[in-house]
From TrEMBL:
Name of protein: Cytochrome c oxidase, cbb3-type, CcoQ subunit
Keywords assigned: Membrane, Transmembrane, Transmembrane helix
Organism for this UniProt entry: Helicobacter marmotae
Pfam families listed in its UniProt record: FixQ
Transmembrane segments: 13-33
Length: 71
């Protein structure tokens, strides 16, 4: 029954799924740009991670100590 429904409405299902994925992609891109513009997170630092990946390189963000583990 479900297989028959999918077979008969295959084009419509494909269109809906494609539109949902496009909307999700644009929403994610908007989130990245808006959070960088607000100063919440600087994603360009993470883009440099591929270039600066030696052990001697400076970390992107300071490491936070876990107060429970440090005792």
């Amino acid at each position: 029954m479900i297989v028959q429904f999918v077979m008969t409405h295959q084009k419509e299902i494909y269109l809906v799924v494609t539109l949902l994925l496009v909307a999700f992609l644009y929403g994610y891109v908007y989130h990245l740009y808006s959070s960088q513009a607000k100063g919440v997170k600087d994603y360009e630092k993470y883009a440099k991670l591929a270039l600066d990946d030696n052990l001697e390189d400076e970390p992107i963000e300071p490491r936070k100590q876990n107060p429970i583990k440090g005792k």
